[in-house]
Write a structure and sequence with these properties.
- This protein is 40% helix and 18% strand.
- The protein has 14 helices and 16 strands.
- The protein has a seven-stranded mixed β-sheet, sandwiched between helices.
- Bound molecules: pyridoxal-5'-phosphate.
- The site of pyridoxal-5'-phosphate (PLP) has 15 residues, from helix 5.
- The site of pyridoxal-5'-phosphate has 15 residues, from helix 5.
Length: 444
């Protein structure tokens, strides 16, 4: 079978694909090759993948150790159903529970982040006998019906049309947009937010609330760093009212922020951890829910009313094992902290230099620039959930210069593969500086 040309690939994509979150018929880069942090199209144009695709290829493209593990498992045995025990699945479950820490006990495997949250929600309802799920407005938890209803950003509206019961939103703090100064107003911001949340919990009926579902570090909505004490306060409220805390680590997990999981930045331990993306470097779909001892005990006495044909897929678990081993063997967490220092330093310079950059947030290799019209008033460059041309123009300029970034609302996010080398970071960051100069001159 002959290979398609770049033009054919592009045309077939445009004419036959229904693409996520897009109007059908859009052009996409036909990718001929991907290696390390780079993608190449069919005309040999080179792009630095500074968003790790959808913040999921944490170990970069074409990683040979992972690909070998995939091939080996495919040769040995690509698939066994959930009720069979396999080397790959048993091994990975134990590794993940160990990585999560002493209070955790078992894993339910899924195929995506949304499915992980969907199943965590079901489990929380089964265990507590309560219905309501609290989640943040500034959040994203996936696109299946339950996960979408739990998501706070505007992508949930389509899923809300037919309805799903018991999803309650609360406003999580965004220090910059809420007018606070980080490092100065944390206590005030935390106190206000937790007070409002506790009041909302009381009005919703604490004995009806099964779980609070939160991203440890809000990702797709702008790498929002919570004020000091906020996350710990959420844990305290959950304990006070017998509510489970589900920590969504789909984007922040697997060393994206430095430690294995984002919640490890805080003085708390969740009851369930949901994961996907980085567990397999996205080479094959895999996600899951890691549950604590108490939840595990419940399902030792009660049937788990959750099931997926591909739960614990053999091929996916083999890749998961290879990735977890790779993260540890190559000390990716420590490397992330070294690269963070460079990225953070650069971002702070950009805030100083550019009138259009209001704030920079960076934790590990998870970062976002807050683009503004006016630094004094903190007026954002675009209005929440209103169509705009400014952000696509910024991403387009970056892309023209071979820099692929990620964006929503008014922010530009840089989340390169965690394996990025110092020289690569230093070579590509100046492109952002150039594009921000253009933004200063033409868009504000
Ligand atoms: C925090 C978070 N949770 C869940 C999801 C959904 O994951 P998936 O697209 O694999 O269903 C995402 C996707 O970006 C995410 O960022």
């Amino acid at each position: 079978m002959g290979k398609l040309s770049g033009t054919e690939i592009k045309e077939l994509h445009r004419d036959y694909i229904l693409q996520s979150w897009s109007v059908a018929g859009k052009d996409a880069i036909p990718v001929a090759k991907a290696e390390g942090i780079f993608l190449y199209d069919y005309d040999d144009n080179k792009y630095a993948d500074m968003s790790s695709q959808l913040v999921c290829t944490n170990l970069g493209h074409g990683n040979k150790e992972i690909i070998e593990a995939l091939k080996e498992q495919a040769d040995w045995m690509p698939f066994m159903a959930p009720s069979y025990a396999t080397d790959a699945k048993s091994r990975l479950a134990k590794k993940l529970v160990d990585l999560a820490g002493p209070s955790f006990r078992r894993v339910f495997f899924t195929n995506s982040g949304a499915e992980s949250n969907e199943n965590a929600i079901k489990m929380a309802r089964m265990v507590t006998g309560r219905t309501k799920i609290f989640s943040c407005y500034r959040s994203y938890h996936g696109a299946t019906l339950g996960a979408s209803n739990a998501s706070g950003d505007a992508r949930r509206f389509a899923a809300e049309l037919g309805g799903a019961n018991g999803f309650v939103k609360f406003m999580n703090p965004h220090m910059y947009q809420d007018g606070y100064t980080r490092g100065v107003d944390d206590a005030e911001c935390t106190e206000k937010a937790l007070k409002a949340l506790e009041q909302q919990i009381r009005y919703e009926g604490p004995n009806q609330i099964a779980a609070v579902l939160m991203e440890s570090i809000v990702g797709a909505n702008g790498v929002i760093l919570p004020p000091e004490g906020y996350m710990e306060g959420i844990r305290t409220l959950c304990d006070k009212y017998g509510i489970l805390l589900i920590m969504d680590e789909v984007m922040a997990g697997f060393y994206r922020t430095g430690p294995t999981f984002g919640w490890q930045h805080f003085d708390l331990v969740p009851d369930m951890i949901t994961f996907a993306k980085g567990v397999t470097n996205a080479y094959v779909p895999l996600g899951g829910v890691i549950v604590n001892e108490t939840i595990s005990e419940y399902f030792e006495e009660n049937v788990l009313q959750c099931g997926l044909t591909y739960s614990g897929h053999t091929l996916a678990c083999a890749v998961g094992n290879a990735c977890v081993d790779y993260y540890e063997k190559h000390q990716i967490g420590a490397h992330v902290l070294e690269m963070e220092a460079i990225l953070k330093g650069f971002m702070e310079e950009m805030v100083e230099k550019h009138p259009s950059v209001g704030e920079a947030r960076c934790i590990g290799l998870f970062s976002a620039f807050e683009m503004v019209k006016d630094k004094e008033t903190r007026e954002t460059l675009t209005t929440y959930n209103e169509p705009n041309t400014a952000m696509p123009a910024i991403l387009g300029k970056l892309k023209e210069k071979g820099f692929l970034a990620f964006s929503r609302d008014n922010y530009v996010s840089i989340c390169p593969p965690l394996t990025i080398r110092k020289e690569e970071l230093e070579e590509y960051l100046p492109i952002v500086d150039e594009v921000f100069t253009w933004v200063d001159e033409t868009l504000i």
